Records
---
Amino acid sequence: MGTGKRGLIATALAVVCAVTVLAAPGTAFANPTPSPTPSAGPALAAGKDLEAVRQKLDKLYRAAGRATDEYNAAEEKADKQSAEVVELAKKIVKGQEKLRKLKDRAGAAAAAQYRGGGLPPEAHLVLSDDPQDFLDGAGRVREGHHATKGLLGELTRTQEDLEQYAKDASAQWKKLEAGRKAKAAAQKKIEKQIAQAEKLESALQKEEQERLAELEKEAANKAQTAWLDSGILDEIDGKASEQGKMAVQYATAQIGKPYQWGAEGPKTYDCSGLTSQAWISAGRGIPRTSQEQWKRLRHIAVQDMRPGDLIIYFGDASHVAMYIGDGAMVHAPRPGRTVTIAGAGSMPILGVVRPDPDTGAN
């Protein structure tokens, strides 16, 4: 890749967001692992393996990310099941009202027969002496038979519908309860992983925390440098669609807002909450979780991606970001961090998905 293009990319990233995992122009890719600061020296000499701490934190936060996906999926499923239970309840209420009216009609028919001396219409017909009355009565009897048969059939169908609605509602309620348990279990996982990570970080001295932040940047820089050195950016030249531009505009407008697991804005976000809301703002609903985004959206080759596409990270699809062009992405990283811009290759890329059609790019 040409050094001029690389310098342009680094400069663009620095202008968009001064606080980023990328270093300043001129050192962004040339020196991914700066020397330890003097203040960090004594801590490391005392036996603190900060690189091991960094890897442990990364493992804990990734586990929290997976659990967050489980939580979001359970929440989304619970919302759908709740809506289905409500709809079934409405059907049951309407069915009960319909059944009441049908029973009233059946009762009125029975009362009419009672007022006729308790004899069925056929008996009155046989007892008639007038031939014309007999013929007219025969027609009325046939009509009456059809009406009675129809009424009984409708009563039966309504009762069967109510029984089915009740069974469906019971089944949905059981699923809802199971979903709530899954959601609670996922929440416990998240809180446990985050608590362990926060405990680990809080045990560090100030200079160790600063050095740890440097190590995180160095790891991201190293990965980004390797990705750029592959020449991939020379192949990526896709232009954003109109919807893609709107999604990017929304996502980048959230820069600086805190990460919060399970959040979809407008004040806080998790990774898939940011990408899903960005595309909703562009008029296109997409799956809520990063794993579902990976499963259900159209896969695109990395070299074919364009601004607005979603980059899925790690083998378990536990993280997602939005590509914004020039080798950069915007994402909600993890607890304790804010929505920010980073190098698109700063984490292991699983693949790229596109929420909108290919038409309309410019």
Note: The longest helix spans residues 131-202.
---
Amino acid sequence: MAINNTTLQLQLSNGEIVDLSAPQDSITVNGGTQLKNRNNSLTYSTKDKTNTTEQVNKLWVPPGMDYHITLSDGTLIFLNSATSLRFPFHFTGNTREVFVDGEAYLQVAKDQNRPFILHTPNGAVQVLGTSFNVNTYDPGLIKVSLVEGAVSFATANKQTILKPGQAITYLENKGTMLTALNENDLLWIKGRYKLDNTSMSEITKVLPRWYGVKVVIDNPATARKKFTGTILKAEPIQEFLDAIKLTTGAESYYKDGVLHIR
């Protein structure tokens, strides 16, 4: 699936693409698995649990959307915009393993005998049962925020145990940093993005994910301007652009489908 795809899609292990952009109570896919796509959420039941090998599917949530999925073990995953999740319909073996690229909040079902391992582009998070957020949007950077339970975050050369209320940030070539959890990092689940004296250059990384629009800053001086406020995904982007203009003086216009800020 292309990263710029604008459609909510599930790519099955056999390469078949299932379009999830329209709600549907029953979708039958390979192996007799029944999908239910309702209320911005995917649930499924699978008949064949005897396979000895896991067949990995890929779920893609496009810009401007968020989506929920309940895995076969009962784990609930909230997926933010422009995020992909790779997962099997049924876990086999002694672990439960998925891969996230983007941002997700997980409520992991407890299973003492089968650790849950979330892989990211630069490290892995291992849990038994817990709630945590993982953000991998920026290349070479991962942030894991632990709400409850316990997780270990492992990179190629270091493993760190997190306690509830802690967050760990990994920056490629610079290592890890442990901090207190920032509640603002969890607001996306409620459709809000809190900005606290944030530069326009950072803000323009969020807008494409939340509104599906390409953004260019015309003036380098504008890129350095700071803004404090909240982006609400449910509101039109123009509401936010008006607030930007009011507080920073930065104006915006569209040209060939691209949003320019000057």
Note: The chain has a mean pLDDT of 92.
